[in-house]
Amino acid sequence: MICRAEQLAIIMVSSKCQTIVIPFEYYDQVENYLRTEQIDIINKELFDFPGSEEFFSWMKENSESLRLKMNHSHHIITPKNSYAAPMQLNLELTTRCPLHCPQCYCNLNRGKDLSLDRAKDVLRQAAELGVAYINLSGGETMVYPHLYELLRECSSLGMYAAVALSGYGIDKDSLNKLIDNGAHEIYVSLNGSTEEISSITRDGYHLAINALELLSEIGFENTAVNWVAHQSNIEDFANVAMLCARLHVKKLIVMVFKPDASHSLESAPDGEQLLKLVQDIKQLRSTLPSLCIEVESCYSPLRALLGQKFLLNSNVGISKGCGAGREGASLDVDGNFTPCRHLDFPEYFDSLKDYWYKSELLQKLRFVETTPEEPCANCRYSPYCLSCLAVNAKLHNRIVKANKYCSLWK
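and the corresponding structure tokens:
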């Protein structure tokens, strides 16, 4: 369990990579639980998910530490509209990849690897700041020569490491080696239940299926699938979900279509398709309880639709939308910090903490909602949505809350 204090809140991350935020308004309830161990006195909405028992068990066994963190949270000062430090940090390990995916976001012509010394230095800094998640991505992560060493480093520093891969170079031995060296979660990219559908946007369908089958065979419990929504695969989402359930995938992540390496954004889902996806997700969450269907934060329009309940909307707070510079950051292959892997505005800082607190770019990102432009300015979902800022950044070289490619405002 990773537990850290934020400004007037406690954030807890379990070994299953489930996260809860306990605001100070609930501290009295937590204190009553620590004294009585009666679960029913805590607001059930905070812990209303499978696996919440791990949180209660940790709270009981670490009561004094938890009390200290709650007290400390009253004295923490954070940058406006962000956490005191990143919750997650992405490391772009390499720009090399043997696949040729039509939707690829990366510039694969550079053929570079992230310096091992720089990566380790930043990981140590991240651990000191209380970063919970490290995401190792590429290019293709499996071609990075120091992958296992970085996994061991994350594990020794007490952070959860996730590896994103396509399936290239995967066999049972390599998977066991990833797990033995500290891969806490393994994310496999898959955009369709069949090769015909998936290959429209991604290469390597059979590689992905092979990796998922092997992970199921060895009984790995934290397998996830990254599925990017396109016009070409919306109708296939339910089939992908059922395939994931059959292969004992723990999480299916619904991801927004971002501009590719050539700064093109074609075939994004239209409004009718977005509404269908909402209905599919709601239905599948009830019919496939063993599969956790999550929507990444930068797919904020979809999260806003899913969060709508009569006159209220649950998609609020720092994690309601684009988390660049708010809840996460990235280290690119050249050793520079960027707000996320899709916002290519590199800045070199020796210190991750200095980047988080002193970057003028991050300050701009955190205040982008104060001056929204059309169509976001007058969209009724605007208070509950901050869609991917990489769209305007890549297509128009502007950082602004205004996404004309979004169908939510229509």
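(Above: one complete record from the training split.) Residues 88-366 form a domain with the TIM Barrel fold (CATH 3.20.20.70).
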